[in-house]
């Protein structure tokens, strides 16, 4: 199942303001690379706004929480299940045609 994750933090909790910004970023990379239950399909950052976005594939909520725990301490998370547009439009058209 696909999920869109939005992470928001502020300048005070920004990992780049820590005593070891490379360590904090490295910790997150280790969590992502060490989690065989989650596939990160893409990730993006709007650095001036302190917002990050990810599209992930996961089978269960526990896997998502493991991935997100380092970020939860820094700010808020929004996790939304999403589907590819083609799947939704095909299902909608099939329902209308029936």
Summarize the structure.
With 98 residues, this protein is of the alpha+beta class.
Walk me through what this model shows.
It is a single chain. This protein is an alpha+beta fold and 98 residues long. It has a single domain (2-97), classed as ORF SCO4226, nickel-binding ferredoxin-like monomer (Alpha-Beta Plaits, 2-Layer Sandwich). The protein contains three helices and four strands. It has helices spanning 21-33, 61-72, 85-97, and strands spanning 2-9, 38-46, 51-58, 75-82. Strands 2-3-1-4 form a four-stranded antiparallel sheet, covered by helices on one side. A hairpin with a 4-residue loop joins β2 and β3. The longest helix is centred in the N-terminal third of the chain and has 13 residues, at 21-33. It is elongated and about 60 Å long. The model has no long low-confidence stretch (mean pLDDT 84).
Give structural attributes:
single chain; 98 residues; alpha+beta; Alpha-Beta Plaits; elongated
Helix and strand layout, with pairings?
Elements: E1 2-9, H1 21-33, E2 38-46, E3 51-58, H2 61-72, E4 75-82, H3 85-97
Antiparallel strand pairs: 1-3, 1-4, 2-3
Helix pairs in contact: 1-2
Distance between the termini: 26 Å
Overall residue-averaged pLDDT value: 84
CATH architecture: 2-Layer Sandwich
CATH topology: Alpha-Beta Plaits
Q: Topology as H/E string?
A: EHEEHEH
Strand content: 25-35%
Helix content: 25-40%
What is the number of domains?
A: 1
Shape: elongated
What is the count of β-strands?
Answer: 4
Within CATH, the superfamily carries the name ORF SCO4226, nickel-binding ferredoxin-like monomer
| Secondary-structure content class | alpha+beta
CATH class: Alpha Beta
- The helix tally amounts to 3
Uncertain segments: none
Largest sheet: 4 strands, antiparallel
Radius of gyration: 16 Å
Strand order, main sheet: write it out: 2-3-1-4
């Amino acid at each position: 199942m696909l999920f869109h994750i939005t992470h928001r933090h502020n300048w005070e909790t920004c990992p780049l303001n820590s005593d070891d910004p490379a360590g904090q970023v490295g910790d997150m990379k280790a969590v992502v690379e060490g989690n065989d239950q989650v596939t990160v399909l893409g990730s993006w950052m709007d650095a001036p706004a302190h917002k990050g976005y990810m599209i992930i594939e996961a089978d269960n909520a526990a896997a998502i929480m493991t991935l997100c725990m380092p970020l939860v301490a820094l700010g808020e998370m929004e996790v939304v299940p999403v589907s590819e547009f083609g799947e939704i439009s095909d299902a909608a058209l099939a329902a209308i045609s029936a």
